[in-house]
Amino acid sequence: MIDKRLFALVKKWPLVCLVGLRLVNLGISITIWTYLAQGIALYMSGNVVSGDSPFGRFYWLFLGAIAVKSLLAYGIEKVTYLSSAELRLNLRHQVMAKAFKLEQTGRFSAASLAQYSVDGIEQLEIYYSRFIPQLFYCVLASFLIFGTLVRFAWLPAVALLVCMPLIPIVIMMVMKVAKKILGKYWTDYTDLGTTFKENLSGLSTLKSFDQDGIKQKKLNQNAERFRKSTMSLLSMQLNSITVMDIISYCGAALGIALALLTYSAGQLSLAGMFLFILLSAEFFIPMRQLGSLFHVAMNGISAMSRLFAFLDTPEPVYGGKGLSAPVTTVTVDDLSYVYPSANPSANPSPTPSNSPNNDLDNERPGDHVLRNVSLALMSGGLVGMIGKSGSGKSTFAKVISRRLVGYEGDVYWNNDPLTDLSEDAIKQSTLYVDCHGYLFQASIKDNLLLGKKDASDEELWEVLETVQLADVVHSQESGLDTLLTENGGNLSGGQRQRLLLARALLKDVTFYVFDEITSGIDRRSEDIILEVLKQLARNRLVLFISHRLYNVMNAAVVAVFEDGKIVEFGEPERLKNSSTYFKTYFIQEAELLQDAGSLKQSQVTEDRGGYYD
User: Fold this and answer.
1) Between vectors from CA 102 to CA 483 and to CA 415, what angle results, nearest 5°?
2) Which of 183, 259, 270, 442 is most deeply packed, by most CB within 10 A?
3) DSSP H or E run through 574
């Protein structure tokens, strides 16, 4: 029920303070009930109640106790807030730091990770700052009350102490059912959030294809499934609270009955009997409060297991060696790669298959995506890679640029094994750019400065001129300070990709990988990008991936992928004339382009409502 890793995130003294303050609060209550019981006993015995008697001093004691208990209540809430705030901040910091280290969320979708980081941590906060202190307080409070009562009569005190563990036993029994219900609850919850985010992001596409009604029905089904899971959770909570109430009331009644019998037998004083009556209910209140927090605790435990599953995701391991010279060659020897199989226990909400982060090569976990690939790449000319979707070309590029690890075989940058290079050496020397690059809701200048934070305005205009966006930006009233909407929504498809390319050029590394950056844009932007890549490759190692053969016809060399292997490699014109596979691929693509004709061109061109070229 308690994960030790949780305590490593925060200081332990707030929990100790919480338990201590609550015990002091209980001690004051016991003192009040003791004075009250003695006063009532004196009064019923016919003794005169004087100002010096317990009952006479009770009035002032009661007022003082109220003041002290009010201060204690404030202190308890203050310490609770401090402990929970520290946990929230530390855990969210670790989640974000982990996401940055992994550079992608892996098995977790962005929506589910956001839910765990917000709602999950909120539930975990209640578990840590309220349930755990209450758990320790229950044990200590029970012995404190027992120690007070056993001095008057051991039999009813022991009876109360024996009944008290029945509530934790009920809690443990409920936990077996609760784990299954809560697992389903969180799965349905994250699935609903993921589906909602996905449908909202693709709402315009759904409306264009008149599929919004179908998606609405599926979303309603997910919502109904989540509602049923919620009602099952609430039903379990209500039933468990009812059972705990029965145990509490029966235990208190048993203690009072035994106290009355003991008193009638002359083995218990009148004051002791009244104290048993007053404290029997108090005996079960801490455990009863613990039971009321149980369902929240289970939510926290469920969220904690998923958050720690993400935090336990293995991070890339780098070497400690730097590069002695710019990367000019990449050599691959007998390279094979297998995507790891998903672990259901650690994958409560897998990334949807249509998520932009998914690569088509990553659809066969457990199978070889790359098979014994050997290749030598050199700078000085554009290196093209083509192949059908799922052929392994993107996986190959991610492996040699160190975005994927766990491969078999050897990869060398210059003469240095890739596994020996440090993280700084790799990140300062290579850049992987695909069509899913993100543009932030900020100015064009701010987005470009991500590539080079100290770039001057002259450098920004120069790189915009290179990708032929300078005239477009000049035409805007604010120029470089023109604000972009989310992910560059006020740019056309071609403008957006060229701006991403401009940002990549500012990074100025020696090894570039461009993966399908000409996908889904107009032909003019496509030609501009290809020309920029061709010029860039004169003094850089530039790898360009495409599934369109005509895109790589101007490359220095082309590698053709099929089923995880390189089936052809050489100059494109030579392959066009000598390779049967290359010829077949070229003919098939030419037929597809001819069938698409001008219709495809008109549909793909600047239809995103952006600034006109």
Assistant:
1) 105
2) 259
3) helix 572-578
H or E stretch covering 23: helix 13-44
Specify the amino acid at residue 337. Y
Alpha-carbon distances of 139 from 19, 126, 134, 284, 345, rounded to whole Å: 10, 19, 9, 11, 33
pLDDT digits (tens, 9 = 90+) for 206-237: 777 777 888 888 888 888 888 888 888 777 77
CA dihedral for 288, 290, 296, 297, sign (positive or negative): negative
- Please state the rounded mean pLDDT for residues 16-32: 88
pLDDT band at 352 (very low <50, low <70, confident <90, very high): very low
Q: Which of 203, 184, 204, 202 is nearest to 192 (CA)?
A: 184
Burial class of 275 by CB neighbour count within 10 A (0 to 12, 13 to 18, 19+): buried
One-letter amino acid at 552 equals V
Q: How confident is the model at residue 463 (pLDDT cuts 50, 70, 90)?
A: very high
Q: Which amino acid is at 201?
A: S
Tokens of 303: 């969220």
Give the residue among 65, 491, 591, 335 at the shortest CA–CA distance from 503: 491
State the Cα–Cα distance between residues 17 and 23, nearest whole angstrom: 10
Give the ranges where 202-311 is alpha helix by DSSP (H): 203-208, 212-264, 270-292, 294-311
CA separation (Å) from 480 to 469, 497, 613?
11, 17, 16
Closest CA to 318 of 410, 431, 417: 417
> Which residue's structure tokens are 């919850």?
189
SS (H, E, C) 71-86: HHHHHHHHHHHHHHHH
Q: What is the mean pLDDT of residues 230-255?
A: 81
Question: What's CA 255's distance to the chain center, in Å?
Answer: 49
For CA atoms 198, 203, 209, 211, give the dihedral sign.
positive
Give me the sheet containing 416-417, strands edge to edge: 368-378, 329-338, 408-413, 416-417
